[in-house]
Predict the structure.
Amino acid sequence: MEKFDGPAISVAGLRVIRGKNLVIPDLSLEVPRGALVGLLGPSGSGKSTLMRSIVGSQIIAGGDITVLGLPGGTAPLRHRVGYVTQAPSVYMDLSARENLRYFASLVNAPKTDPQRVLDTVGLADCADRPVTTLSGGQLTRVSLAVALVGKPEVLILDEPTVGLDPILRRNLWAMFRRLAKEGATLMVSSHVMDEATRCDRLLIMRGGGILFDGTLSELLKQTKAKDADDAFLALADAADAREAAA
Amino acid sequence: MSIQLTGATALRVLTQLRRDRRTIALITFVPLILLTLLWAMFLDVPVMPGHEAPFNSVGPGIMGLFPLFIMFLITSVTTLRERQGGTMERLMASPIGRADVVFGYACAFGLVAVLQGTLVVVYSIWVLGLNFAGPVWALLLIIVLDAILGTALGLAASSLARTEFQALQMFPAVIVPQLLLSGIAIERDQMPQVLEWISDALPLSYAIDAIHYLTENQSASEIWSQVVILLAFIVGALILGVATLRRRTD
């Protein structure tokens, strides 16, 4: 694998039209390597569309996307980028282990990988039950585990903690942190603003654009807010005021 | 395309199918029950001396239909489920080739089709006493090709459907015209010229032609052109299935 020092993800002038709606008019961003980046914003702000564009699932109308120095969504990236869709997407009639074995064979991961990721997401106890019999939180973790086989260098996780209990959320964020320490780059979306405290950097989206790009302390300083929720509201109000003035 | 990834996909599809006991029962027994029904329908029909019993002339053609119907429905619904469940998007973001997905499905369901076809033929000849002039292996070959054709058409049709309702409506749209024009209801050369041309463009017609030939002749020497045409339709439908699979969607 070639050594690459540039940003893990770089998006320039992204434009996405879905149906007749201009979902992302003109978006640019960069994510440094090894960062744990939170993609925050209300639902409908374009987070999933941006993530789908980065992994190459979304038809885009314009712009350049580069992942690990290669054009986004191209064949050499498909075993280096892990992607979790917003709804858990696994084979419901198979067990977690069978799902992982199948996806591990697709990325040519070692035979031990399914067991490794089962331990990582804490599902070793129910690995052999059909996925249909698992709880919502367990199902979310199976879907997440699938993205972890083959140790991808970039992980794009679309709302992986939504609907989970606080303990599970804390554990998952600890795991994301660990993966980032091991050198992976993670982009994790959420519409819960308080997850901002767990990220190195924040990208806050609204109406298909980036409202803010920086660290949490920068965000709080800039908006003079006391927490991420207030900061977002302050940013949104400021953006509205700018639009009204223009 | 890679043999390893196609094989892994076929194995995964078969594992899923194995979990679904009710579907296995439906695939196995429904054709046998329907054939028994057909056999029973003709029980009291008098047979003119020197004529073939009606079950012997109608049975083989009908036997070629069941695998086509059932495999078409199963394939179109399961692949649509994969698209809707998000696993297709996941596969398309992974290193697997589009052909690996389609051929993986075709191999898995093709295997099921072979088993179902064998069961139908064995049951008709040895249990229902179907009297068949041509070689049994040739009949089996055509029936298995019919079943694989159903799989291939189901794969292609499911890519045109957005919902399960639409996927089911593909059945009357794709399969029923073939049923009407394939020569089962009336001989193809007795149809109006235009319909005969349309019938020439439909794959099932060639399967029925071959089966009709086999019911009247002891050798299989003249079915090979039909076999080649059927294979061409199967390959064409599979390629269509691959072509309609998209890595990027709206």
Q: What stands out?
A: Chain B touches chain A at residues 4-5, 8-9, 11-12, 15-16, 19-20, 85-87, 89-96, 247-250 (CB under 8 Å).
